[in-house]
Specification:
4-stranded antiparallel beta sheet, binds calcium ion, single chain, alpha/beta, Rossmann fold, Arc Repressor Mutant, subunit A, 228 residues, 5-stranded parallel beta sheet
């Protein structure tokens, strides 16, 4: 099986460096120098993962990511953002549009490959299975749907995975590092605080139907999904 990774980066030197490293690790790198070239490539064939530069000449990487998340065909396409910025606000803006991970430039090839592998592992199909339902909240992994009765609930990809994991492990105290391990796959490069950000979003999404109460904060422990 070949794993195709699309590199969207306008600086040829960085693009080539990434391509060389990906190829050396057994992946098939594809290259695009701007957003419109990336779009053409993605329209022609869906890659397995996209490495997306934040600053592109024709459009920002955030806008590209937002559009990919907005279309059903590309909604679950794994995206890692490459960014020279490292402020918290920028990171959160990236997570807001549903990117899966980000790497701050300059990065080492080793870090890049670790993140690519971790994300591919998490995104692998077959990792999830049967629908789960707790207290009227229903999650269907195959169709990527969450609902309460006939009311659909919209979640970002990370919140979806987080909810899925918690619903599969109800009534247990799940520490932040446990959640990072299980939901993010590789927590070496992600701060534990990230978990809180996504829990907050998840609660907000579950509030209208009264299901936010199912996520309990365990002081000094982490989180627990109530069984009913
Ligand atoms: Ca750039």
């Amino acid at each position: 099986m070949t794993t195709q990774i699309l590199i969207v980066e306008d600086e040829p030197a960085i693009r080539d460096l990434i391509a060389v490293n990906l190829r050396y690790a057994g992946f098939v790198p594809l290259q695009a120098a701007d957003a419109s070239a990336a779009r053409k490539q993605i329209d022609a064939a869906l890659p397995d993962l996209v490495l997306l530069d934040w600053m592109l000449p024709d459009e920002s990487g955030v806008d590209v990511a937002r559009r990919l998340r907005g279309e059903s065909r590309t909604r679950e396409l794994p995206i890692i953002m490459l960014t020279a910025r490292s402020t918290e606000a920028d990171k959160l803006q990236g997570f807001d549009v549903g990117i899966d991970d980000y790497i701050v430039k300059p990065f080492s090839p080793r870090e890049l490959l670790a993140r690519v592998r971790a994300l591919l592992r998490r995104a692998a199909p077959g990792a999830s299975d049967m629908p789960v339902e707790i207290a009227g909240l229903r999650l269907e992994p195959e169709t990527y749907r969450v609902s309460a009765g006939d009311q659909p609930i919209k979640l970002g990809p990370t919140e979806f995975r987080l909810l899925h994991y918690m619903m599969k492990h109800p009534d247990r105290v799940l520490s932040r590092s446990k959640l990072l391990d299980s939901v993010w796959g590789d927590h070496v490069f992600i701060e534990e605080r990230t978990v809180d950000v996504h829990i907050r979003r998840l609660r907000l999404a579950l509030q209208p139907t009264g299901h936010a109460r199912l996520i309990e904060t365990v002081r000094g422990g982490g989180y627990r999904f109530l069984p009913e």
